[in-house]
């Protein structure tokens, strides 16, 4: 389904279902897609735990949500498949405009490693990876063990910040699993350490780099699921 540029406001969490690549598979209680919709719809704004975390950084504090778009696709060169982000959010405060991409997780991992993804790669894949690294200001080639999904989700934030002429790009992992043994936090930590030499801290925006004057931040936040639900793992792109 092509992503149209005319948007209709949601009426409930159920409105998000139609945007999924495979609604019958992904829209179930305890799955990340439905948990994300419930989290943001109940808040009717930036969920409290994310807002409190953003307030810990001077560039992002006291931000208000201007709009959010579920399952937002960001085209990338080197192939026909875009980066489909769980949520694109545009926020602002008295200082600046910021673009957030949200990757929601229950117990899912972050997909293939770069080593696996690039194995026997086509010219298009190599072009895509080089483009993503450029967007993120990453020069290191020591990235084989890192997860490809993190690369294109972070790149989505920078690409859309540039399109909106925003000063900040924030990639948020909204984890509905609190345990590090289940939520794959180590993959996130390794990405920040290897690519930016930065230590990971939860519940606080981490400044990574400035790319073409856009400040790039990472944020890991735990969100308690709405209601008493059993968390379920499902792999999503």
Draw up the topology in text:
Elements (H helix, E strand, L loop, with lengths): L22 H4 L5 H12 L4 H7 L9 E11 L8 E10 L4 E9 L8 H5 L4 H14 L11 H16 L4 E8 L4 H4 L1 H12 L9 E6 L2 E9 L15
Parallel strand pairs: 3-4, 4-6
Antiparallel strand pairs: 1-2, 2-3, 5-6
Describe this structure in words.
With 237 residues, the chain is an alpha/beta fold. It has one domain (32-222). The protein is 31% helix and 22% strand. It has 8 helices and 6 strands. It has helices at 23-26, 32-43, 48-54, 114-118, 123-136, 148-163, 180-183, 185-196, and strands at residues 64-74, 83-92, 97-105, 168-175, 206-211, 214-222. It has a 6-stranded mixed sheet with strand order 1-2-3-4-6-5, with helices on both faces. Helix 5 crosses helix 6. The longest helix has 16 residues, at 148-163. It is globular. The two termini are 15 Å apart. Residues 233-237 have low confidence and may be disordered.
Short description:
With 237 residues, the chain is an alpha/beta fold. The protein has helices at residues 23-26, 32-43, 48-54, 114-118, 123-136, 148-163, 180-183, 185-196, and strands spanning 64-74, 83-92, 97-105, 168-175, 206-211, 214-222.
Shape: globular
The main pleated sheet reads as: 6 strands, mixed
Instruction: Please state the CA-atom Rg, rounded to the nearest Å.
Output: 17 Å
Instruction: Provide the succession of SSEs.
Output: HHHEEEHHHEHHEE
Average pLDDT metric: 92
Strand content: 15-25%
Number of helices: 8
Give me the secondary-structure category. alpha/beta
Helical content (DSSP H or I, runs of 4+): 25-40%
Strand order of the largest sheet: 1-2-3-4-6-5
The domain tally reads 1
- What distance lies between the first and last C-alpha atoms, to the nearest angstrom? 15 Å
- The unreliable regions are 233-237
Counting DSSP E segments of at least 2 residues, the number of strands comes to 6
């Amino acid at each position: 389904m092509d992503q149209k540029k005319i948007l209709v406001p949601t009426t409930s969490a159920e409105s998000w279902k139609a945007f999924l690549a495979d609604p019958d598979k992904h829209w179930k209680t305890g799955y990340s897609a439905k948990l994300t919709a419930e989290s943001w719809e109940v808040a009717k704004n930036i969920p409290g735990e994310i807002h409190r975390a953003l307030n810990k950084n001077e560039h992002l504090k006291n931000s208000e949500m201007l709009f959010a778009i579920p399952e937002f696709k960001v085209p990338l060169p080197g192939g026909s498949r875009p980066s489909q982000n769980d949520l694109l959010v545009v926020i602002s405060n008295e200082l600046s405009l910021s673009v957030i991409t949200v990757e929601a997780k229950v117990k899912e991992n972050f997909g293939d490693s770069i080593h696996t993804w690039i194995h026997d790669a086509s010219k298009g894949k190599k072009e895509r990876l080089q483009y993503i690294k450029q967007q993120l200001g990453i020069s290191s080639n020591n990235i084989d063990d890192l997860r490809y999904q993190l690369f294109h989700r972070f790149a989505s934030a920078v690409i859309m910040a540039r399109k909106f002429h925003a000063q900040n790009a924030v990639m948020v992992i909204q984890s509905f699993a609190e345990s590090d043994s289940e939520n794959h936090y180590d993959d996130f930590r390794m990405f920040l350490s290897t690519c930016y030499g930065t230590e990971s801290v939860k519940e606080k925006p981490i400044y990574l780099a400035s790319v073409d004057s856009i400040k790039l931040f990472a944020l890991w936040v735990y969100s308690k699921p709405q209601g008493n639900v059993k968390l379920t793992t499902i792999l999503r792109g």
